[in-house]
Design brief:
The protein is an alpha+beta fold. The protein is 50% helix and 13% strand. It contains 9 helices and 4 strands. A 4-stranded antiparallel β-sheet has the order 1-2-4-3. The mean pLDDT is 98.
Length: 199
């Protein structure tokens, strides 16, 4: 499937058929999400993966009982990671492990640290959440490219999800992406015209 077809055929599935996606395909999707770009390459996200039926039912109650949660094969909970300094340290470690010299990345690491230290707690969350949506786009389009479907969801209680999943305070549930095989029929896409979007 070419990219144009993927974009045109993808839609927000409201009901899945309950079939389980093969682990091979799920792993391929995870790799596409992992490769998503982010500002400074800090990658301020963690994706919690939920497959347990009982846990999905608990989460569904915290998502206005929307059926996507319980009928999906997997529920991906995209969390903004506000521990930006921690991620910078991890990125530095990763770059060194991949062969970069400490001297060659020193300035870049200091620049990232200066950026992070200049953010208030509120701005850290806002910035991290904006990055999360880039990874979400990879999930939505990647799912369609791999032959299954997805649905972006903001209709849930982040506080309840954090409590149910036992998340630490620096991981903030931001958007959900249930994945599976559609059991509904897409409606025609409604989008603004080219003239309205591009000015």
């Amino acid at each position: 499937m070419d990219f144009e077809t993927i974009v045109k055929s993808r839609y927000a599935v409201k009901n899945f058929d309950g079939k389980v996606i093969s682990q091979e395909k799920v792993d391929k999707l995870f790799e596409l999400i992992r490769l998503a770009p982010s500002s400074f390459n800090i990658q301020p996200w963690v994706v919690k993966v939920v497959t347990d039926k009982a846990l999905k039912e608990k989460l569904q109650a915290a998502a206005w009982n929307q059926p996507q949660i319980s009928t999906a094969s997997h529920v991906l909970v995209f969390c903004a990671n506000t521990d930006i300094i921690g991620n910078i340290h991890l990125l530095e470690k990763t770059m060194l492990a991949q062969g970069a010299s400490a001297e060659s990345i020193k300035g870049y690491v200091q620049m990232m640290q200066g950026f992070a230290e200049g953010l208030s707690a509120e701005h850290k969350l806002s910035w991290a959440q904006r990055q999360v949506y880039i990874a979400l786009a990879h999930a939505l389009l990647g799912a369609k490219a791999l032959g299954f479907d997805a649905c972006p969801m903001e209709g849930f209680s982040p506080e309840d999800f954090a409590k149910i999943l036992g998340l630490p305070s620096h991981l903030v549930p931001t958007v959900l992406c249930p994945i599976g095989f559609a059991a509904d029929v897409p409606k025609p896409k409604v989008r603004f015209s080219k003239e309205q979007v591009f000015q």
